[in-house]
Amino acid sequence: xxxxxxxxxxEWFSAGMSDTNPSSPDKLDSxxxxxxxxxxxxxxxxxxxxxxxxxxxxDIALFRLSSGEFYxxxxxxxxxxxxxxxxxxxxxxxxxxxxxxxxxxxxGACLKGDERVRNHMVRVHKGRVQVALCHEDPVQLRRRYRQxxxxxxxxxxLGQIARSVVRMVxxxxxxxxxxxxxxxxxxxxxxxGITHGPALAMDLLTLYKRYYLEDPLVPLMVMFDFxxxxxxxxxxxxxxxxxxxxxxxxxxxERILAGIExxxxxxSEARLRGAIRQGWGRPEVEPWFYExxxxxxxxxxxxxxxxxxxxxxxxxxxxxxAEELLSGLLYRMGYATREDILPEWAWFxxxxxxxxxxxxxxxxxxxxxxxxxxxxxxxCRVLDxxxxxxxxxxxxxxxxxxxxxxxxxxxxxxxxxxxxRFDPRWDSDYTVEDDWLTVTHTLTFVHSxxxxxxxxxxxSMTMLLLFAARFINRTRTLDMTARTSETSSVRDHWxxxxxxxxxxxxxxxxxxxxxATLARKPQEAMALGQRYFETGGSVEALEKKLCRILLSDHxxxxxxxxxxxxxxxxxxxxxxxxxxxxxxxxxxxxxAALRLLASPxxxxxxxxxxxxxxxxxxxxxxPKRLYI
Length: 628
Ligand code: FES
Prior knowledge:
Helix 2 (138-155) packs antiparallel against helix 3 (158-170). By secondary structure, this protein is α+β, with helices and mostly antiparallel strands. It contains 26 helices and ten strands. The protein has a six-stranded antiparallel β-sheet, covered by helices on one side. The chain has four domains: 2-132, 3-layer Sandwich (Rieske Iron-sulfur Protein); 138-231; 249-337; 343-480 and 509-598, no CATH class. Bound molecules: FE2/S2 (inorganic) cluster.
């Protein structure tokens, strides 16, 4: 469109066009242009004139160059809104005085800076200057804003991103569309497949749908902030051409999984793309991913965590995004660490090998109504028992017909307890690789195990229970008690030693919890939280308030806030579920979330990186890990 306007102007001036064809304002002229709005006599604007005029209540910057040509653009600079009428014009270039953005007056194109400025047509008609406002078609406008958004993300320009998001939402682009766009952007660019982007999109959509229905802008900005910091100047990864399936979904799925197993990742990705392009949907494709997650424990459980999030996201943003998102997920799993094949898992492989034949028996014999037979004992064994005992705790319950859901409840409480016991000093100890994030995955993983059983109930999913028990048990080396050799429960410590005097109404308690969380007082936040939950305080009311912290600039590193949001969302969903079940410590997930949110968390790892580099380069050693 801008090119047409430029051509029109060139013709008009080169022909020395004068005013023989009057057209009345508010009507289109014979060329379909206008309506034309009358300003003043041409002599009112001598060559070199520049100033602001008002047309239909819009502020327009009008320029008359020394050549006599007229140009008009929006007076408001698209950068920060300062008046362009005060800018400097050299040749056809308009420079905004405030931050030096430069625009071509003839087209509105941005020559230096971020976004173009809207330009308008000007003519001299019967000795009077007239302006026709440019109204861009909303479809084109949305496309332009999306391009500008992508440019901002590519170049790490937060201001441009924010403006584009606000403009797009103002044009009724739905938050779901924007979150979907962000997730696909991530999937296309991640060097090793998706990053935390799609999971973050799903978590933010969850928070938005629950609490931000009036204002999607904050969660959207958090999303795009993550995206730009993660993918600055990153080109899309080369993706293989789809291979259309020739067999039934089950056989195709087996081939895809075999490809991942044999490190033929591109081939598997190509088959997956073909399957989706052929029209296979969630019922055919989802089981392949869950099946893959039962075969390997992918780095800190991310394979399963991402699988749950991506499929839920597709449910909201539409299956059209499936090819990109799922191929990015598969690629990520293909390149992820398979912890279960590391040497320290050899005993686990051996122990679980013998259990496989029993999965079917346990699955068929599970009694949905049956809770854990020995809940306290189960917790102790998973949390503090020898590694084999943690597995045994699960298999003993399965053996007597306890349902997977009840076992997941127990694992969820155990994972929350692990978070409550974590010694935050590890987080700032650069000599070890483990930190807060390590331990948060225990809860997010268990939460995804629950989703997997609901989505895809089948005997092979039993393996996920064993992975979870192993994972929770394995992180015991990060407990406070492990560092201090104390035997008392951390739970006892904060319950008894924290004195909180004010027990007002629930609303007041919510405020107090949030205050303690913001003040980084985890003991107080947890003590307040426990009393709040015990007296029937609403989970939603607290979560809604805590949302403000989760989405604020309180935590700055993208990987840290992605994990914090992920853990909090999972913890509060677990808390809601647990409240409906008859279990020990039903409030544990909520307390775990409070502890994480209130605890200082390491935002930098420069020293850790340096330490690990020296260990490798100078001493020839691998990083020191407590999570073994
Ligand atoms: S307001 Fe124009 S460049 Fe910043």
